[in-house]
Amino acid sequence: MTLSIIAAINQKRGIGYQNKLLYWLPNDLKRFKALTTGHTIIMGRHTFESLPKGALPNRRNVVLSRQELHFEGAECFHTLADALHTCKEDEEVFIIGGATLYTEALPLADRLYLTEVDDEQAPADAFFPEVSPELWKEKSRECHPTDEKHLYSYSFVDYERTQK
């Protein structure tokens, strides 16, 4: 199994504020959909609750919660380890948030798909963990300027783990 993390982060590693995304970047949302469709996505309860239409279509939605809860269109597990044990050996699994789950999954992850937003002003109360250059190597970077649909310039940056 390949464990991947996908997130949009700003220059201070901010990812969210009051259980909402910091940025509305249509191209980031398209990339997210293209990468995760057909795969298992694992998220925390708050992330699932923040999805405007509930479970994301054409993906196996997995929610982590310590409580015995039912999430329409999703499977629920108490721990990341329990969820990962149900994944196929040959599949790519995506961690999609939030901050606590990113921190827990980062030491296990093989790939990072980050959208790095050129902003540090947006208020944030949830943050992505630090990405150590000793453990992660940048594989590709695709830079995009601001335009009529994107108020901030941003880069799609893919990393691969160099060592565990």
UniProtKB/TrEMBL annotation:
Signal sequence bounds: none
Record GO terms (molecular function): dihydrofolate reductase activity; NADP+ binding
Family matches, as InterPro entries: DHFR, DHFR-like_dom_sf, DHFR_dom
Reactions catalysed: (6S)-5,6,7,8-tetrahydrofolate + NADP(+) = 7,8-dihydrofolate + NADPH + H(+)
Keyword NADP applies: yes
UniProt-listed GO biological process terms: dihydrofolate metabolic process; folic acid metabolic process; one-carbon metabolic process; tetrahydrofolate biosynthetic process
Pathway recorded for this protein: Cofactor biosynthesis; tetrahydrofolate biosynthesis; 5,6,7,8-tetrahydrofolate from 7,8-dihydrofolate: step 1/1
Gene3D superfamilies: Dihydrofolate Reductase, subunit A
Known EC number: 1.5.1.3
GO cellular component: cytosol
Segments forming domain DHFR: 2-161
Uppermost EC category: oxidoreductase
Pfam families: DHFR_1 (PF00186)
TM helices/strands, residue ranges: none
UniProt keywords, alphabetically: NADP, One-carbon metabolism, Oxidoreductase
Role noted for this protein: Key enzyme in folate metabolism. Catalyzes an essential reaction for de novo glycine and purine synthesis, and for DNA precursor synthesis.
Family designation: Belongs to the dihydrofolate reductase family.
Name this polypeptide is given: Dihydrofolate reductase
